[in-house]
């Protein structure tokens, strides 16, 4: 990416996450290091083109929505290219004639799950592995909470090759949909699993809690509000400095209800089930990165 204060950002594959990110950078919460002059998005189908145009209509003067046949045009016109297609589509995108050449000198960001930075570099270089000098690649893993700007996005890169400017740009982009956090690539798979799956595991727990409330006669909608709000409040105590284990002990007063509930979960192996579930997901993530 050339030095600049304003940038055109291409989002190749403007689906669920791509749209959230495009919205975030078109309507930033902080001014940061760049001004987004234009966002160029691409999608596969005409119906998705209409969806993106409607969803981001407030920003139509700075938004261009194209179909996948124009991926090359989007990349050529951009300073930063964010790949948000499904991983199975990556070869279609990168093998389009001209795409690899157009990527040279640009900041490449990929949110494709399970695709390592090495693989992104391989895709971007093609057979030309003589030089990867101008390629700066950031691999990122946001989650669905990007929709409400609450995503914790993990990022990783070869920090010897990533300029400070591009580090700032990538951080700024994901800060517009929550919070960006750079981690070493060696711990990216397990960290990504935590960011990607932990939420869904906790949602399963919420579902179970709701069933119990309904079985005991509370309306599901009311139970949902009280359960989710109290869980959010309790979870926020953790970043405020409370250790989860200590907090759990504080809640469980002698002879009380919480200790009974907690012991019931321990009896059923719930804690180790969560551990096993994350380790299984981490294993799968490692396989995906290798394949
Ligand atoms: N969803 C998650 O929670 C999550 C979390 C972390 C990472 N990810 C990763 O983020 C990426 C996007 O996920 P998503 O859930 O947003 O997927 P998605 O909603 O299916 O979005 C993918 C988009 O790519 C478009 N597309 C397909 N082929 C294309 C092509 N050749 N050129 C340009 N655009 C093309 C699709 O267009 P149409 O709509 O017209 O089909 C669609 O809009 C994936 O790689 C996924 O692994 C997802």
Automatic annotation (TrEMBL):
Residues of the Pyrroline-5-carboxylate reductase dimerisation domain: 185-288
SUPFAM superfamilies documented for this protein: 6-phosphogluconate dehydrogenase C-terminal domain-like (SSF48179), NAD(P)-binding Rossmann-fold domains (SSF51735)
Pyrroline-5-carboxylate reductase catalytic N-terminal domain ranges (all copies): 8-114
One Pfam family of this chain: P5CR_dimer
Taxonomic superkingdom: Eukaryota
Record family assignment: Belongs to the pyrroline-5-carboxylate reductase family.
Protein name in the entry: Pyrroline-5-carboxylate reductase
